[in-house]
Amino acid sequence: MSGHTVQDNIVAVRGRLESALQKAGRTPGSASLLAVSKKKPAEDVQAAYEAGQRSFGENYLQEALDKQQALSMLDITWHFIGAVQSNKTREIAEHFDWCHTVDRLKTARRLSEQRPDHLPPLNVCLQVNISRQESKSGAAPEEVETLAAEIATLPGLSFRGLMAIPAPTVSFNEQRLPFRALRELLDTLRINHPDQPLDTLSMGMSDDIDAAITEGSTLVRVGTAIFGARAS
Q: Which residue positions does N6-(pyridoxal phosphate)lysine occur at (predicted)?
């Protein structure tokens, strides 16, 4: 894929994002775009960077580390958005700015302990299985408050908010329901933990951006609409 095509796609997705914010009556720029670059080459990431994109999400650790090395000259904010395996927490803690997929206390503690002292705290989101899907990772909604209280005490982490991947639905109103539930969970956490930033709702992808923005998303994760279909 040429840089020109990636650039066009970035412009189109940003336009869609701003249109959704306007329709929802929200402030322009109050949600940002996370470009999901898994299974895409470093050249595509660089093309998106040249189009003004700075935040990139990766699911697979080794692939991400290879890209980070290849693109070390660029000022990229790297987000880990894949499943966090215990044997990979150290490298996530050492090489990423964000981790969206913390869903248990053991993982949070390891990330905090393994975050290098010379780096700022790792920004983390607590992943919530908001649709209670057996096939999905994430804490159950009723576990969120207990986990949040523990995560908030960990010195190597900055607890930024919640992330979810709801079960797919077709209608706009159906899409809104799990996003609303996640927002309400975050609203409660903000009341109970006023000392934490809690400024992030990582929710919404290519098919449900509008519903996510309507319910308060601050960060939408978009891959295919920017980079094209991924290799299997």
A: 38
d(CA 37, CA 222): 9
pTM: 0.95
Is residue 180 within 8 A of residue 187, CB to CB? The reply is no
Residue 219 structure tokens? 């960060």
The C-alpha atoms of residue 232 and residue 18 are separated, in whole angstroms, by 31
- Which fold is adopted by the domain 3-223? TIM Barrel (3.20.20)
Per-domain boundaries in the chain:
3-223
Say what the alpha-carbon torsion angle 192, 55, 78, 137 is, to the nearest 10 degrees. 50
Q: Reduced to 3 states, what is the DSSP secondary structure of residue 12? A: helix
pLDDT digits (tens, 9 = 90+) for 117-133: 999 999 999 999 999 98
Q: Let me know the angle formed at the C-alpha of 8 by 172 and 79, rounded to the nearest 5 degrees.
A: 70
Non-local (6+) Cβ contacts of 182 within 8 A are: 128, 130, 162, 164, 201, 203, 215
